[in-house]
Amino acid sequence: MSRILVLVRHGQSEWNLLNLFTGWKDPDLTAQGVKEATAAGARLKALGYKYDIAYTSVLTRAQHTLRLILDQVGQPGLETIKDQALNERDYGELTGLNKDDARAKWGEEQVHIWRRSFDVPPPGGESLKNTAERTLPYFNAQILPRVLKGENVLVAAHGNSLRSIIMDLEKLTGEEIVARELNTGEPIVYELNEDGSIKSKKVLAA
């Protein structure tokens, strides 16, 4: 029985390119992001899996990435569920700021703490712990059961919502997961055992 879960961070967005804190704002992909998502789809197609369902956030960059991947794997009409539980971390008052400008305003050390601590949120925003508190209940109630009953599931989302899922799947600590880098447009393919443990993992790097 196949129990495949694919997690992929969206391709480069317009605000990634500008080095801005994006959060729940809704820029689209850049031309580079389109290339990344299309290439991710081609690498997934080479594995030969067919997917039963896809999940994404309510944000354009993740949805666009998913559409490009589904076109490449030959399943453009696949049932897709969109939910804000899979949205990126909300950066609060940092949203829309250039990361260098944020460092100038609050200091290098403080901005580093907000970006790389597990449980310290920026003003008005979410920590990674807060993000996990909305992402994981949704994942465990809606997505994981589909995989465990033998379906192949594709999730296109964001760096921090996916970190939350990876932390749970790989049994990582908060300190371990904040150090984990997820590249844009780089699929991670898990095969799960019937108890939800990981049978195999592949990172489809460019």
UniProtKB/TrEMBL annotation:
Site, as annotated: Transition state stabilizer: H158
Similarity comment text for this entry: Belongs to the phosphoglycerate mutase family. BPG-dependent PGAM subfamily.
InterPro entries found in the cross-reference section: His_Pase_superF_clade-1 (IPR013078), His_PPase_superfam (IPR029033), PG/BPGM_mutase_AS (IPR001345), Phosphogly_mut1 (IPR005952)
Keyword flag Isomerase: yes
Assembly description: Homodimer.
Chain residues that bind substrate: 9-16, 22-23, 61, 88-91, 99, 115-116, 159-160
Family annotation (SMART domains): PGAM
Gene Ontology biological process terms in this record: gluconeogenesis; glycolytic process
Enzyme Commission identifier(s): 5.4.2.11
Catalytic activity: (2R)-2-phosphoglycerate = (2R)-3-phosphoglycerate
UniProt-recorded name of the protein: 2,3-bisphosphoglycerate-dependent phosphoglycerate mutase
MF annotations from Gene Ontology: phosphoglycerate mutase activity
Listed pathway(s): Carbohydrate degradation; glycolysis; pyruvate from D-glyceraldehyde 3-phosphate: step 3/5
